[in-house]
Specification:
Number of helices: 1
Number of strands: 10
Strand content: 35-45%
Shape: globular
Helix content: under 10%
CATH topology: Pnp Oxidase, Chain A
Order of helices and strands: EHEEEEEEEEE
Length: 165
């Protein structure tokens, strides 16, 4: 009998997932705690998100000797991605942080900021800020991002300074 897949410990994302805006990371595969701490936590003001996934295409590899066309892995792409934040009536909100053309990194800590858990590091440039104008909902600002190189996925979250969590 085959070994079953490891049972997951299921969780509800709200209140757990952390998302950071980090201006500078020297190596996206191994961000340091000081680089992460120099960032800005966005999760408390994030009302919605879209995208933030990578997918791989395939390339057909036909051969004259077979009617079957096998495929191999091809290009890796990232979905159009955005974060939607709550707007402040006094204008002191995400609009001052994520301005158009600003490069940086969006860091996703899906299971929280827990050392030795994993995070995804997306190198990005802010492409737009758009005011969401809808009746009967809180005012919001949507920020779009161009993912500028392959994200570093499932990299270890470093311990806090001093080795504590």
């Amino acid at each position: 009998m085959a070994t079953p897949i490891q049972a997951s410990t299921r969780y509800y994302r709200r209140g757990v997932t952390k998302v950071l805006w980090v201006p500078t990371i020297a190596n996206k595969q191994t961000p340091t705690r000081s680089e992460l701490d120099a960032g800005t936590a966005l999760d408390a003001e994030t009302g919605a998100m879209s995208g933030w996934q990578t997918t791989s295409g395939t390339v057909p590899t036909p051969a004259l000797g077979s009617r079957f066309t096998p495929v191999v892995g091809g290009e890796i792409t990232a979905a159009d991605s955005s974060l939607t934040f709550y707007a402040s009536k006094d204008g002191d909100d995400v609009r001052t942080l994520l301005t158009r053309e600003t490069p940086g990194f969006v860091v996703w800590m899906d299971e929280g900021d827990v050392p030795e858990q994993t995070m995804d590091v997306y190198p990005v440039t802010v492409t737009y800020q758009s005011k969401v104008r809808e009746l009967d909902q809180a005012a919001q600002i949507m920020c779009g991002f161009a993912i500028t190189s392959e994200p570093a996925e499932n990299v270890e979250i470093p311990a806090a300074a001093g080795g504590g969590g």
